[in-house]
Amino acid sequence: EVQLVESGGGLVQPGRSMKLSCAASGFTFSNYGMAWVRQAPTKGLEWVATISYDGSSTYYRDSVKGRFTISRDNAKSTLYLQMNSLRSEDTATYYCTRETFYFDYWGQGVMVTVSS
Amino acid sequence: DTVLTQSPALAVSPGERVSISCRASEGVNSYMHWYQQKPGQQPKLLIYKASNLASGVPARFSGSGSGTDFTLTIDPVEADDTATYFCQQSWNEDTFGAGTKLELK
């Protein structure tokens, strides 16, 4: 059974940093691209970043370029999202997803609240 | 960015057929996908590449369309289908529709 379990969320002040992790199991992690998708409270879904199966390629939405970094450790089957210079508009539930043109498996999500 | 437009809400009775539309601001070939999200849960993939049923999804769900106009159909609708349905395109940079909230009468 495919499982994606996020961790690392919480309350953070504007301008500070936070790192999310996603532990994957139930599939060969190193064979798949992975992504983070977020959802602000009572809002829709928004793609944040994607990383290729081997980590050689990364892609970001414009609003997080230069602030967020997606990475992975295939030996640990773990996906990461380093978030710097956080803003109030980054407040959302962040989902770890497996990506193959579409997002076929999702974690339960982790809440990130950016507030002073 | 490719903008996806969905109707905000629909209300149907159990046993009826419902069609949820998604219109793209530019052509996305067949790279349109559909998700169901129930309150407090993560999204779940229903349909990928316009018309392919995801694993474990009941055959009551189907998808159609190509280019700019796509439809998710549920027939017949059941009480458990109360949820918000999102479309997503991956032909250009990934974008999602705002979602259609399906309520049962």
Task: Explain how this protein is built.
- The complex is a heterodimer of chains A (116) and B (105).
- With 116 residues, chain A is an all-beta fold.
- Chain A has no helices and 11 strands.
- Chain A has strands at 3-7, 10-12, 18-25, 33-39, 45-51, 58-60, 68-73, 78-83, 92-100, 102-106, 110-114.
- In chain A, strands 2, 4, 5, 6, 9, 10 and 11 form a 7-stranded mixed sheet that branches. Chain A has a 4-stranded antiparallel sheet with strand order 1-3-8-7, with no helix packed on it.
- Chain A is globular.
- The relative contact order of chain A is 0.31.
- With 105 residues, chain B is mainly beta.
- In chain B, 0% of the residues lie in helices and 50% in strands.
- Chain B is built from no helices and 11 strands.
- Chain B has strands spanning 4-6, 9-12, 18-24, 32-37, 44-48, 52-53, 61-66, 69-74, 83-89, 95-96, 100-104.
- In chain B, the strands form 2 sheets. In chain B, strands 2, 4, 5, 6, 9, 10 and 11 form a 7-stranded mixed sheet that branches.
- Chain B is globular.
- The mean pLDDT of chain B is 97.
- At the A-B interface, strand 5 and strand 10 of A face strand 5 and strand 10 of B.
Question: How many DSSP helices of chain A?
Answer: 0
Fraction of residues in H or I helices of chain A: under 10%
- Overall geometry of chain B comes to globular
Which outline of chain A best applies?
globular
Number of β-strand runs of chain B: 11
Oligomerization category of the chains in this entry: heterodimer
Number of helices of chain B: 0
Percent range of helical residues of chain B: under 10%
User: Quick one: biggest sheet of chain B?
Assistant: 7 strands, mixed
